[in-house]
Amino acid sequence: MIVPLIVGTLAGVALGIVSGLVPGVHANTMAGLLLSVAPLLVGTLGTPVLAAALVAALITHTFLDCVPSTFLGVPDADTAVMVLPAHALCLEGRGAEAVRISAFGSASAVVWALPFCLLFLVALPALQPAIDWGIGLLLLAVACYLVVFSESPEWAAGVFLVSGLLGLFTFRYAFLAWNGGDAVLMPLLSGLFGVAVLLSAAGGAMPPQKQGGAVPLTRSFVRCSCAGSVAGAVVGWLPGLSSATANAVLASAIDYGDDRAGFILATSAANTANAFLGLAALYALGRMRNGVMVALGTLDLPPFSFLLFAAVLSAAVAFGVTMLFSGTAGIFARVPLGPLNAVVILFVTLLSFILCGPFGLFILAAATLLGRVPALVEVRRVYCMGAIMVPVILSSLGVPVL
Length: 402
What we know:
By secondary structure, the protein is mostly helical.
């Protein structure tokens, strides 16, 4: 099984690098690509190679997706909130540092996720009915905490609820998009957290980018990586939740304005831990948390230990690749921000149209308008995560949203 493991992992890492570096392309896209040629791959290389490639692509994506979020300010579903402090560090000439912190956060999640996988596989399946029932109440409590302890509870509640309505509308009418389903997340989150920020960004040139130094293994590092890994593990196991939900929850515990490095570390850990525990949930409960798990569910699955080994191996390779890409920060030094932001906005608009058609452009425009509000009323942009949290809360409580 060593040869299929290595071949599949390396192929998945290559696909994950592409999906991580290209804004708007997710590991689910690569899973669909692999499934389209699955009969050929299974017939020539075998099912274990395909399964390892799917897992490796997902894990690698969680490492590399910080690069466009940091240097271009374009989020995907997993980096929507993280893009704010990461891009802010980039504008201070610390983009390489932000990417390195993110890489260490994802790497630390692997260490935490391994015992979590064993614990969850053994202890939680019997408790799953009770856990499913309490998801909506848990998220509702988190949302209330975020709003009550905000700078302006009235405006925070307003932004949260209006973004929730926009999220409900987006998911309810996702069938109007050309590709439907998860594709609508791209214009929704890019408008709220990407284009809205870029439109209000200052001009001038991007400052010279410093090469990141060593990331200190302090007590704060351990605390933030543990918090992020726990949050990612929880949403990776529970139905209907995603890394975006975990990141919103982390925003209630770590102030991304005061502790940007800690927040980047925690959210990156959450993204990677989510991928690991999603794999554990597939084996323990037969539940599929994302497109990659859906693709795996169509195969004759190899042993869990085989795919767990592929995940760890791909994480090790992806860590090195991410650290390598942190050195590309110098490319952006002294780049005029006005033209760069315009090009990024144009790219996001074009990609929204390609993925979702006219409906995607409408969602992008509406989300961008709403995304401008937090800065105007001086509340944190995290309340725009109501676009994800409100639909999840309502569906968890049994309220139909689709």
